[in-house]
Structure formats: C-alpha cells, structure tokens
What we know:
By secondary structure, chain A is of the alpha+beta class. Chain A has 45 helices and 16 strands.
Amino acid sequence: MNSARFRQIETLYHAAREAPIDERAALLARADPELRHEVELLLSEQNGAEFLNRPAIEHAHDLLEDVAAVELEPGARLGPYRIEHKLGEGGMGQVFRAVDTRLDRAVAIKITLEDFSARFEREARAIASLNHPNICTLYDVGPNYLVMELVDGETLAARLKRGPLPMNTALSYASQIAEALAEAHARDIVHRDLKPGNLMVARSTIKVLDFGLAKSSRDQTVTASRAVTGTPGYMAPEQREGKPADARTDIYAFGCVLYEMLAGGRLAFPRRRLSSRKLERIVSRCLEENPGRRWQSAAELQGALAAIAPARRMAPVAMTAGVMLVAAAAAYSYLHQAPKLTSTDTIVLAEFTNITGDPVFDDTLRHGLAVQLQQSPFLSLISDERIRRTLSLMNQPPDARLTPELARGVCVRTGSAAVLEGSIAPLGSQYVLGLRATHCTSGDILADEQAQAPRKEEVLSTLSQIATRFRTRVGESLATIEKHSMPLAEATTPSLEALKAYHAAMMEFVWPRRLPLLQRAVALDPEFASAHAQVGFGLSTMGESVLGRQSLLKAHHLRNRASDVERFYIETLYDRDVTGNLEREQRTLETWAQSYPRDARPHTLIAGMALTSTGQYERAIAETAKAIALDPDLTPAYGTRAFNQLFLNRLDDAVLTVTRATERKLERGELLLIPYFVAFLKGDDEELRRTAAAARNSPGVEDIISHLETLALARSARLQDARRMSAVPVEIAQQSGRRERAGLFEAGRAVWEALYGDVPAARQSASRALALGTGRDVDYAAAFALAIAGDLPRSRALAENLAREFPEDTSVQFMYLPTLRALFSLAADDPAAAIQALEIASRYDLALGGVGFIGRFGGLYPIYVRGLAYLAARQPAEAAAEFQRILDHRSIVLVDPIDAMARLQLARALALSGDAVKAKRAYEDLFTLWKNADADIRLVKGARAQYGRLP
Amino acid sequence: MSRSDGVTNLLRAWSAGDQGALDRLAERVYSELRRMAHRYMKNERQANTLQSAGLVHEVYLRLVDVRRVEWRERAQFYAMAAQMMRRILVDAARARASKKRGGSAAKVNIDDAAILSPEADQSILALHEALATFSRLAPRQARVVELRYFGGLTEEEIVAALDISPRTVRRDWSFAKAWLSRELHR
C-alpha cells in the first residue's frame, strides 16, 4: 500500500461518510471497484470498533492481577465438561472439543474473549430453544462460554476451497439452510452472520452454526462489545450501514452463500450470472439492495427452491422443430397469463373522477376506498405524503389533483405496479361507480369493476363492494378477504361529511390545526370511533391526558364499529393513555405489525411511548428503521428515531436522522429539539443559542424550548433567571388551553426548587401546578417535589391517589410509586426499606417514564433516590456508583437539574468513602457547571464549604 | 522549592525549547504515571467510577502547578503522558502474556467466572502493533489514536495537543478506528 493510494482511500472515505445517503451511493459508484471495495469495508467497520471508544486503561483492569492464568489443557475440567482438545479459533474465541460427563456426550465448547452481557445470556437461552436438524443446537450458556452440539465434519468454507458443488448438492444444502432460517425466524431470531464459515457439512446434512451473533429481533440485545455485526463480504447493504438486521438480512447472506456454492468463487460485483436461469432469479432476488424487494421470508425462498426440479442428466439433443414449437407455446402462455400483483407490489390511487357535480364526493370517495383497501394485508397503497413528494419531484405542485396521467407518472417513479382509477357519475337519480386498475408499465388492465348505487346514502357501501371484488380480482385469497373485511360504512363512518372533515384533519401536520377538524368530524358523527381515537391521541400527545382519556374511552367503547386496523389503533391508544399498561400496548402493536406487515404505523407507535418511556432505546431505533423503510414520509418516525439515538448518545446518528427528515421536508415538531440537545451535549454554547432561537420560532415547540431553557438555567444554579423564564412556557401552554401541560411545566419548577432546598418556593410551585391541571405526570412531579421538600402529608396523598387511579399503569407502578415510597422511607429514617422499594424499579432504571417522555425531566430519578438511600445507609461507595450512573447517561438526563444534584451527591459520596482526590475533582466539575450560580443559594454555598474542608 | 514547582519549571522549560528538561521531566512523570496506572488497574475493578481522562488529568494535577501553566504547555504534557501510558500498558500486557505462557494450568471450577476473564492483554498488544504500522502511513491519525485511546484525552485536549481543528480530530478518529478495526479483524 503506497501513500498515494492511502490518501485516495482516506479522501473517499471522508467524502462518502459526510455525504447525504443518496449521494454516498453515487460517490462510491464513481470510484474504481477496488477503491470502492476498500472504502465500503471501512465504512462498514463503523460499528465494529467499539472497544476503541473507551480508553485502554479501562480495559486493562486485570493486567496486573495475580490471578493464576488459566490454560485449558486436555484433561482440564470445566464443571461437568472434560476438555479434550482445541478445535480451532474464531473471531470471538476458541473452540474446544469436550465431553459432557453427565451424559457421556461429546460437545463443542466455545469460550469467548469477553464476558457476555446478561442480556446476551438471556437471549442465548432463547436460541437454545431452537431444536432443528439443520441448526447446531446450543446446549448450555455460561458467563463467557457456549456449549454446543459437536458436528463431525467440515465447514462449507473448507469444502468450497476445493471447488463448486454439483447442482443437486447445492440445492439440497440450500433447502436445508432455508429450513433452518425459517425455523429461527419463526421465533424471531435472526442469524446476522450467515456465511460458509458458519455452515457445517456432515455427509449430506448441513447445519447452521454460530447463532452466537444472532440477535433476537424481539429484544434489545447487546453483543459482546468487540464483536462485529457480521462479516463484510456477506453483509446486506442495510447491515453495512449499521441498520438493524431482520429476516431479509439473512436472506441476503443466504443469496451470497447459494451463489458461492454454485459458482465456486466468492461473490464479487459485478458478478457472473449463473447458468441456471431459475437459480439466477432466486439469487438475484436474494441480493436486492432494497430489502423490500427481496424474498420476504425463508418460507417464500423455500417455495422457490422447491420449484426447481433436480437436474437430470442431459442427453444430447438436436434442436428439432418440435422443441422449437414447445418453446414457443410456453412463451405464448406466459405472455397471456393475467398479470397478478404480488405481495411486494404497491399501487397508486388516483383521484376519483367526479362528474356528479356534488362536491361532497370530492376526496371522500378516494379516502374511503383507501381505507377499504388498506384492510388488506397484501395491498400496499403509496401514502399521500409520498405522492406529494413525488409530485414535487415531477415539478408539479404538491396538491395537484392526481389525474390518471399524473398517477401513472407517480406509479412509475415510485416503482409501483398499478394505478387505480375510480369514477362516479350520475345515472338519473342513481349513481354509477367505477374502478379500474391498470398496470402502469405494461398498460394491462388488471381489473375493471362497475356498480350502481340507488341513493347517495348507499354510495359508500357500494364502494366497499367494489373494493372487495377488486381485491379478489387481483389475486388475493378469499380467506384473507373474509378475515379482514368490514363494509365501509361501519368501518369508518356512514356520514360523508364527517369523513370529509376527518380526511381534512389528517392532512394537517400539527395538532393545533388538526384537532378542530377532528372535533368537527365527531360532532357530525358522534359514533365515529376513529375520529374519537385521533382526538384522544392528539390531546394526550400535547400533554392533556385527562381530556385525551375521555375521548379514548369513547373510542374504545365504540371500537367494534371500526375495521381491524382501526381497532388495533384504538386498543393501542387505550393502553398507552388510559390504562398506561405499556406491556399490553406493546403486545397489541406487535400483533398489529404481524397482521399487517406493510403498515408502518405500529412500528412507529411502538417506538414511541411503549419503548422509549420504558428505556428500550435500542429496540425503538430498530422499529423506527422498519417504519421508515415501509413509509419514508412518516414524520413521527424520524422524531422518535432521532430521540432514541440521542438517548444512546449517538449524536452523529441523531443529526443524520434529522438531515434525512429535512431532505424529505419533514422537519417539524419535536424533531427541532434535536439540534438543541446535540449542541447541549457537545457543550457548544454558540450553537445552543442558535438552535434555541430556531426552535422558539416554531409553533408547537416554543413552549417546550422555553421550558428546557428554564431547566438548563436551574441546572446551572441560575435560579433567579430560571424563575423568570419559568413563567413563559406555562403562559404559552395556558393560552392555548393546555392546562395539564402548563401544570407539568410548573411542576418541573417545583422539583428543582425542592432540590435546591427552597421549601416554600417548592410548595407554592407544587400547589400552582396542581391548580393548573392535574394528571398522572403532574401529580407525580408535584409529589416528588413535595417529598423532597419535606411536605410528606401532601405527597403521600398524591401517591395514594396515583396508586388508586392507575393500577395498571407501567410508569406509575414501576417508576413513580417506588420512587415516592423510597422517599417516604428515607424521611422515616429507613434507608433499607427505601432500597427495597426501589427493587421493582430497577428494570426501568434507564427509562424516562411518561413524565420524561413529555416533560423532558424526571428520567433516572429512581437511580438518584437509590443513591440517596445508600448515602443514608452509610454505603457511600454504592451511592457513588448510583450517582455516577446518572452522569454516565447525560444523554438521557440532558438539561434536567437532577444532573447537578447527582454531581453534588457524587462528590459527597466520594468524600464520605475517603477518596478526597476524586471527591475534589467531582466538586470542581460541579463548580464549573455552577460558575454563574446565584450568590444566595444555601446548597451551593454549602457545597463550596464542603469542598474547602477536604484534605 | 515544592515538588510541583520542580515539575512545573521543567515543563515550562521544555515547552520553551529546552530538550534537556524533557528527559528529567519525563522521568518524573513516567514514574508517577506508572504508579497510578498500576494502582488503578489493581483496585478499580469493582467501582469503576473513574472517568476516562482521569488518570492523566490526575497525574497532571498532582505534579504540575496549574496556575502557572498555559494551555499549550498543558497540551504538551498530555501528549507526552499519552505516549507514556501506551508504553506502560503495553509493557504490562507483554508481562502478563509471558506469564501466562509459562504459567501453570490451574484446575478451576466452572463456577469461578473470574478465571475466564477477558484477554485484554491481547487486544492492547494487537492494537499497539497495528497502530505502529498505521502510523507509517498516517502519522497524525495515529497520534490522535494514541492520545485518545491510550491517553484518554478528550477532543479539546487533542485539538490543543496537536494544534489541529476539532473537525480534523473527529475525522482522523473515525478513519483510524475503521482502519484499525479492519486490521484487527483480519
């Protein structure tokens, strides 16, 4: 490698990394293949170098231990296992052959270089449940070892060094691997590192090994910190970009393996085509860049493989006229098969042509038809946002009427399969409805339906009949139709006017504009379940949980009037905002996603409150990836994604997400807070000011940004300024009638007043907050403030109320009440009870809770209180560890003044445990934060005095 | 003259160009750093409360009178300390590796998780080698890695030590990580 070449690689690497995603691909494409390959490999290493992120010394803690080194020699025993000899070494560790002396069975033990995380262990146990002849069974799991089935054979990699496989063998292996994948995927386990090195061949059987890197797509898991997410050569494009893997990632790798089995050589781009056209087609589809275009499941793949008859020995045949005729006939019949849509096809719904002259039909019929068609899990309509965006790419105004011409243009540009055109025309006093589906590239007509409605009131039900027939015509099985069908009128509303209002509402981007329209819809049709649900959702999102609950209860009551999809949505919201049972909400959303795999909404909803407020940030990110893949114009998904990335301190990723949203012109709402938080975490004051100003100019966020600035001031002990500023968000919220939100902002003040020790101010603030608007989160914040301030009777009353009103609520039962109870125990001088009370909260230690999710304060308070409990229990080392945890998660705590408190308590704990040096440093860090503190704060003065007293 | 006066003067002298001062300074710093590193490695396993830059920063605070020293001198100190940290850790890793090779095979119980502990020595040595090769191609980037990974310096400190822009530091770090990671996983 010479230095000129090196420079090239470096330059291209930076250029590619810093370019927006679309341009990156273009940049790489322009480079020569070798250079491109080098850079792609480097880009894919982004997620593999975790160990470099922590300074060496932190890894080196046992370098000087006098622990006797362990050499696993033959004869050594590891519990019930007797080591025989070393089999080999891999990237993760060493593999030994051993004997399980209890069962007298030979096994393979893999001992890894680093301990597994507890999560990995749990998830490995899930993998151990896989029991299939083509999966290498996992018998046992320990802190850093895996005990597996011993396979007597060689790896496929070794076998392939000797040349390609005969087609029948390759087919047989391929089928077996597909079976193994199907089994694992059915249990939500993705392999993530499928390659010939992980496949063992033993005579005619092939087994998949090393699910050690596999990730259960259900749970958030962490692999051993140094392990990479797959081998670059077999990595799917989305994996290389660091996106989470799913079944289709395995399918990509499968394609690479299948190719290699048949061609003998590794996959290189551009690649040689395989001689068998059927296999070529299968491999091509595995290797599609876009996961949505690949085989969607191992089962599908199995079907395709099964259709290939094993090769027969070819007898040399002269080309006769007979053969030619047969070939021609086959071609003929192929051309004239009615083209059907497959499950990856999307369709574009054009505007209804309305020649009745009655405007009530404008938009509503199209909307109604969309609702009807969306009930089918197999049909996927391009979303309206995507249509708008495509239109602007076509230099059309985004609200241009989607005439059949334009629709065809959109269809082609989005790679959709068909355009659906509807029409309504008068026929005397009756109406004629028509629906035609045209394949947009071939022009073939897929379906052409007509029906008559005798009266206006029956137009909608006629429409639903047509839609059902349409669904049949284009190849859906009847079984699905019956399962997912509800006539239109009961599905949404029999009132055209209400439907129109609803439709208009959903076109609005911000809740303050959307709500009035929804309320109109509900006024027009009081039984309009979905509209009630949306009203409830909007109110809750804006922090008006009490009002929101009323609407959601109503929607829940009316849920049987809604279609399946709407019912999922209503049940989700019911749990999210009425019962607060986030576990059940999660299950509902998972079922929704399974039943409607093309629907992006369950993924984005689950990533919101359900996962984020319970601290499952990693999984939330994965879900938003799915949501965005399904619908790249789904605004809420970007915001949720960016926040979760922020919480995991992946600042570059968060910024990238915002950029992606901005590129699609979707930057709105709380997404605008991300740059502010990033500037905060990076300590960039200039940028902080700039981003705050930008956010303040945006309706919908101006109150929250003032609230955040208040918190930031309080954190810096600039309490006078904070008090002045704190009135602003409260006022803004009050002005728009959002009392509970105002209450929550005020309660935030009560908390920091209490933390800084101003008891009267805290009590007044708490009273004000509760007077402004009560709700679950306001009550908790006020109760917390009051408990810290020592006003126990009021705090207890609030706690009892919460316990009574919210028996199923996850935030209340697992975060709020334990924290409050612990504070009560501390007030009663019982730190042991306090620690005990917080046991139940430990699972949600890193969660935000509802209060953190909406009010952006209150996260990690259980950890703080636990720290206080340890201090009271004279265990300063444990206390220090707890407070340190809070500091280690700055990216979750953000501007919450609890950060300052944690630093103070950490310093105290360190001093108490005798480490004056570290304590001093902790105080120094705190004083840097408090450099502009008000002069009269007793807590600050006390801290300085404590510092001065240190040796 | 107090202890910190001595070191401070040496640091300032070196910064002003006195190469002789460097040797004496290095001796003082190295011994202090080594002592603290060993104490850290022995004791800090349980309560890992030390922040990343802690060690170098702590030695700095102990040895140097911060009021008399400018940012540039501090940066040079840090850069030197980072190199020393690398030496200290690599030496310790080598010592450990050779101890293991000649060590006795203890028969241990599988319940004793401590024995199957991470082979940190392997990774530090491997990185050290890879970094040496890398520095021939990209000396500045390698320095960034040394300062950050071995020295535990923050971005600002690296900016000061190498007199480069924050953007360059970030880019160099990103590239170096990717390169080294690839080398180590070959």
